[in-house]
Amino acid sequence: MLAAWRAGKVIPAFNIPYLPIMKAVVCALRDTNTFALVQVARPEWEKFEARSLRAIRQEYERVKDERYTRLHLDHVPVLDEDGLPVDFEAIIAEAVDLGYESVMVDGSRLGLEENIQATRKVVKMAHDAGIPVEAELGMVLGHEAGPLPPYEELFESGRGFTDPAEAGRLVAETGADWLSVAIGNIHGAISGAARSQKKVEARLDIAHLDKIQEAAPVPLVLHGGSGIRKEYLRQAFGHGVAKINIGTTIRQAYEAHRSQSQSAACQRVYDAVVNLLVTQLEVAGSAAAIQPQ
After folding, report:
1. Is 293 a domain residue?
2. Which residues pair with 70 in a beta bridge?
């Protein structure tokens, strides 16, 4: 991640809501010589079919290629999308014990002081095991129940955007290694009829991103990477964003074709990943430049 950040490059991170998707993702990475993270977030075993942290780890051991992949624990919220408390420390401790190679704690629904406290606990746990931590500040919307306000209204108001001064505090006081930020990006819906709908084409406030990076000089992360306009992505990668999460694009590709057959659905995922790496993100070949340590 540091190598990508310093070089102005980005590492894609692919969420796995269905276990068969993982092999297709790894094959696409290998065939395009691209380095990326394979990751799972709590909603993917709670609301989809990733099953469990252990199941994901076992599937990863079966299909991994460490020339191109590492395993990351994505979103573990302190408060979930329904406003309910989560036993986040136990979940992250399990992932550390299972050998996940980086973890994320999401305290973004908390006040700043509570977010700092929760993040600090996870940083201590993970750093003791020698692995990095991703934190989040600002509200990347989209997973909540019910419809969102019009996107342009959200963007123009800056609702949920990461506060640069608070970002500087959180990173300095917790030792978090990477920071997920909100600058216009939104998650794809994960419940109800909206989960199959085309995602909003988001844009990014690059000037605001620069302020965050200046205050918090660590690799920054974009959640909700599917559907962001390409011109904004290319700018963001040169302004501190070193990781971008991709979920909706490959999930919907799989869901739209799984009734035909699992192999057909996985082929669609493979095609979507290759197209994303080559055409949208333009990161094909990155494994030669980003050497995992």
Report:
1. no
2. 37
pLDDT of 40 strictly over 60 = yes
Q: Quick one: 186 exposed, middle or buried, by C-beta within 10 A (0-12, 13-18, 19+)?
A: buried
Q: How many CA atoms lie within 13 A of 293 on its CB side?
A: 7
Give yes or no for residue 227 having a pLDDT over 70: yes
Kindly report, residue by residue over 105-125, the tens digit of the pLDDT: 999 999 999 999 999 999 999
Cα(29)–Cα(39) distance, integer angstroms: 14
Q: Catalytic residues, which ones?
A: 74
Residue 221 inside a domain? The answer is yes
Domain that residue 284 falls in: 2-288
Q: What is the pLDDT of residue 163?
A: 96
DSSP 244-255: EEE-HHHHHHHH
Determine, yes or no, domain membership for 82: yes
Q: Does the predicted TM-score (pTM) go above 0.70?
A: yes
How many angstroms separate the Cα of 102 from the Cα of each of 47, 98, 126?
A: 22, 11, 8
Tokens, residue 95: 């992932």
Residue 45 located in a structural domain: yes
Residue 153 has pLDDT above 50, yes or no: yes
How many angstroms separate the CA atoms of 153 and 203, rounded?
Answer: 12
Q: Is the distance from CB of 178 to CB of 218 less than 8 angstroms?
A: yes
If one counts the domains in the chain, the total is: 1
Tell me which of 148 and 117 has the higher pLDDT: 117
For residues 30 and 45, give the distance between their C-alpha atoms in angstroms, rounded to a whole number. Answer: 26
CB-based burial label for 12 (10 Å; 0-12, 13-18, 19+): buried
Q: What is the CATH number of the domain that holds 185?
A: 3.20.20.70
Interhelix angle 248-257/262-275, nearest 10 degrees: 150
DSSP 99: T
Q: 267: alpha, beta or left, given left = phi > 0 and alpha = psi -120 to 50? A: alpha
Give the pLDDT of residue 267. 98
